[in-house]
Structure formats: C-alpha cells, structure tokens
Amino acid sequence: MFRVQREWEYTYSVSSWGCCRSCNDNGEQSSPFPTENLAVAGSYCDFFAQQEQTTTNVVGAILKQLVGRGGIPEDIREAFQEEKKEVGGRRHLLADLVRMLRSMIALQPKVFICIDALDECLPNNLPELLVSLRDIVIECPSARIFLTGRPHIGEAIQQYFTQAVTIYISTNPDDIRSYVTMRLDMDAEPEAMDDALRADIVKIALENMSDTYVGAFGVAPQSVVYSQTTLSRFLLASLSVNAILGEVTIGPRREKLEETTRNNRLSDLYTANLNQLKAQKGYKAVLGMKVLMWLLFSEGPIRPDELCYALGVEIGSTDPDPEKIPSLRTLISSCLGLVTVKRVSKSDSIVQLVHLTLREHLLSDPTLFHSPHSKIAEVCLTYLNYRCVSDLSPTLASAPSTMPLLEYASCNWGEHAKRGITENVRKLALRLLDRFDEHISARLLLLRYNQDKGHSCYFRTHSIYRIARSSISWNRGDSLSCIGDEGMGR
Fold first, then answer.
1. Cystine design at 55: which of 129, 151, 227, 332 (Cβ 3.0–4.6 Å)?
2. Which residues share a beta bridge with 437?
3. Residue 336, SS3 per DSSP
4. For 154-202, how does the pLDDT look when each residue is reduced to its tens digit (9 = 90+)?
5. Considering only CA atoms, which of 201, 210, 196 is closest in space to residue 183?
6. CB atoms within 10 A of CB 398
7. Can you give the pLDDT at residue 54?
8. Cβ distance 119 to 150 under 8 Å?
9. Is 79 a residue whose pLDDT tops 80?
10. Most confident range, picked from 126-135, 339-348, 442-451
C-alpha cells in the first residue's frame, strides 16, 4: 500500500505494489523482492515551485536518491569530476543525467520511481519528462514508474504510454468521519453546537464526498503506473466544515449545512467560502483578499515572513511601520481555510492556496482582482525605496534577516511592473533606478541571476544590463518601457 497525505489534508491510498506481493503459507503478505534489494525514489511536482522543477532537476533528484543508497559508481563519479573542470562548473545536461540514472537502475534488482501530482508539472516541461520516463522504462526492465495526477493529464500520458490499465479507489469513510469529528472537537464556538447538529454534519459530510480514482498504465514487458485523483473528499469535507463553523450561532450553522448539502461541488464550496470571506467584519475581508491575490500572482513560492511584511507595506510611506505588519495567524484566519502553511524543510515554510483547483477557480473570474501585478509592484517598489533599505550597503552578499521582503522585492518587482505598469509604478521605479548602481537590490538581483544560470562568480556590469534583467528598461527621456529577454541580444 502506497499512502500519501498532504498537509492541506487531501489524502489518498493506492495499492500500487499489489502485483508485487504474494502470500506465504500462513496467509501473510510478503514481497518477492528482499527489502534491501528494492529501491524506491520519488519526486513531488509542486505547482508552487514549477519554475524550479524542470525535467533536469526532477531526474537529478531521483538520481541523487538512488546514489544515496550506497556507493557512487565510478562512471558517475568521473562524470561529476569532469564537470568540475569546466570554468565555474557546468551543470549537467538532461541526457547526461538520464544516462547516469539508467546506470544506477541497472545495478538494482527492482527500482520504483514515484512522481506525485504530475498534473502540477509545468506544461512546457511535461512532454520532456514523459519522454525521459518512457525511455527509462523501455531500456531498464527492472524499473517501474508510479505517477499520480488529476484526470486531464491522462491524455498526455496516453501519448507516451499507449497501453493503459485504470485502477479505481475510494477514500475510506472512516477516515473522513475521524477527520470531521476532529474538526468539530476544535470548534472555537462550542456553545453554537448541539448533538443533533453535530450528528447531521458528520452524516452529510459522508454522503456528499466524491470518489477518487487512480489509473495504471503498462508498457509490456515493463509497467508504468499512473494515477488520477478527482475531487478530494478531504478537501470537500474541510471546506464544508469551514463554512459551517464560520457561523457563530446554531441557526445560521444549520442553514450553512443545508447550503453545503445542495452545493456539494468544489466550485460551489469555493464560491461559498469566498462570499463568507468577503463578508467578514473590519479589515479582515480586505486582508483575506490581499492574501489570495499575492498567492495567486506572486513570482514563485512566498514565505510566511515575506507575506506578512508585504501586507504591512503602506503605499506612500518612506519607512516600514512594525505595528502595521499583520501576524501569520491573522492572515491565515482571514482566509477561512482557503490558505495553508506548508513546511518545505526543517527551517523553512511557504504559504500556499489549499489546492490547485482553488487557483483555477480564482483565475476563472477575471473581475475578482483588479490590476494585481501593479499592486504587487507598488508594494515591492515602495519597500525598496524605504530609507532603511536604501541606506544598506550595496556590497552585502544577502538580504538582512530583519528585512524578509527585500530579496523577493529586488528580484521580482520588474516582472510585476512589466505585467502591470501604471503611473505610480513608473514613478516608484524611476526613483529606484536613479540610484540603482548604489542600491542593494541591484546586487541581489544579479546574484539571483548568476545562481539561476549556474555561474559561480559575480561579475560587474553597467546599470542598463541590471535593469534589463529585471525586465525593465529606463530611457533618459523619463520614460519607462518594458522589455523581455529578447531585448538582451542573446
């Protein structure tokens, strides 16, 4: 049984290794492959890190996991040593990594490669990834590949793995019952709940949840397993309970329960939660919508401290006001369950939408957010023009820990400005560019560029080059125009 549980409480189980199990004389399940001779490596295609999860990086991550099981083969060691001899160190090409991965797989009796949430892979990278996986399966008889994703990815899979076998599964109702019970036990307004309402919430939650299924694809004699996940029962349960517990008296809670009974689709529940978010009193409604805007239109993942400081920026101010920076708890609570915090390492977390389908739902309404990129650009540029930021030494190698928004603002203001140029954005950008050579953001921007391109050294260049890398070009006639990479003459 291969079990995956995501932090936004979307859970599914797949009997992916069932064909590899047998029963002994006592009727107990056993594996025909000794545990020490069975290698498993995997990767999660996180939508919020699409740009970083190229096919090269995914294959490299899988290779690293297999190499970590034991000694490094001599041919792989030699390949890495050769690359070190290049000036600055050249990054490995995809073909090199696929060849090394095949070499590692050949040393193992059985290798299972698991790619989770394939539907969240960047569309431009998907064909290349599928071709690489197909070639590995065809050339390595000991390899098995297990993929998960939502239904629409099936057509792309069929192009590369023509023989398909679909396996349907359903979420265990007991898991949903336990989850809903746990949520009700944590009710912040226990006096607004009675036994009858509690029993009805659990009953309706079990009746309304949609099934999930996975599919398996085979390429004889090798096999590739592909899974599809439809509407998540746990996500539906979470949104339904959030909507109900958002009311503070029994009557409105029962009305909300009846509403979720009629509207048991994800889109309906998203709409209901959004309406409830907008109806919050005070500044919470505005804050909640700002959080959704940032998570929807930001350039890459956003850390909690970055988001808090971004929403504490006051347009027109010259220095930050610590008393206006909201807490993470306030941001999360203002979104009524539509946002979650995901831990990506022992010391780092990101804030993200509860599910990819929420992003699709929000983007389906073009009137929901007005000029989001220009608003984000204004925040970034206001922050960079703060006196305390401008006074920083331009030779610093990294952003100070006391200024968590500095790196994001430095590296991404140009992209947002390019997509939403306004008169205020123009003025703020020109104010920054007037002293760009002596500004810390220029250094941080080039350091990021060098890192992304694999350069090992920091080289000096003139300000127009730096500006262009940020997708903004400043002309002497006090005009600001946007250009892309094609303007670099590369």
1. 129
2. none
3. coil
4. 778 778 887 756 565 556 788 888 989 999 999 989 999 999 999 999 9
5. 201
6. 11
7. 87
8. yes
9. no
10. 126-135
What span, in angstroms and rounded, lies between the C-alpha atoms of 137 and 163?
Answer: 13
| Cα–Cα dist 421/377, whole Å | 8
- Beta-bridge partner residues of 114: 42, 146
Tokens of 198: 């509690």
Mean pLDDT score of the chain, rounded to an integer?
76
Separation CA 417–CA 405 (nearest Å)? 17
Helices vs. strands in the chain: H and E counts, helices first? 20, 14
Cβ neighbours of residue 240 closer than 8 Å, sequence gap 6 or more: 204, 205, 208, 260, 264, 269
User: 370: helix, coil or strand?
Assistant: coil
The phi and psi torsions of 84 (rounded to 5 degrees) equal -65, -25
- Label the pairing between strands 339-343 and 349-353: antiparallel
Question: Helix crossing, 372-384 with 406-419: angle to 10°?
Answer: 140
DSSP calls for 301-327: -B-HHHHHHHTT--TT-SS--GGG---
47, pLDDT greater than 80: no
Q: Which of 7-21, 80-94, 140-154 has the highest mean pLDDT?
A: 140-154
Predicted confidence band of residue 333 (pLDDT cuts 50, 70, 90):
confident
Q: Residue holding tokens 């076998």?
A: 165
What tokens were used for 350?
Answer: 């990101």
All structural domains of the chain, each given as residue ranges with its CATH number in brackets, are 2-171+211-231 (3.40.50), 282-488 (no CATH)
Q: What tokens does 261 get?
A: 């009974």
Token pair of 189 as six digits: 């307004």
Pairing status of strand 110-116 against strand 143-149: parallel
Tokens of 23: 């029963």
Lowest mean pLDDT of 29-38, 215-224, 301-310, name the range. Answer: 215-224
Question: Shortest CA distance to 232 belongs to which of 159, 176, 183?
Answer: 176
Phi/psi-derived region of residue 301, left when phi > 0, alpha when psi is between -120 and 50, beta in every other case? beta
**Cβ atoms of 192 and 253 closer than 8 Å:** yes
How far apart, in whole angstroms, are the C-alpha atoms of residue 142 and residue 87? Answer: 37
Q: Which of 49-58, 74-83, 192-201, 223-232 has the highest mean pLDDT?
A: 192-201
Model pTM?
A: 0.61
Task: Give DSSP secondary structure letters for 355-366.
Answer: -HHHHHHHHT-T
**Neighbour tally for 349: CB within 10 Å:** 16
3-state secondary structure of 341: strand
| 252 Cβ neighbours under 8 A, 6+ residues apart | none
**How far is it, in rounded angstroms, from Cα 490 to Cα 488?**
5
The token pair that represents 319 in the structure block: 């220095």
Order of strands across the sheet that contains 222-228: 38-44, 110-116, 143-149, 222-228, 212-219, 164-169
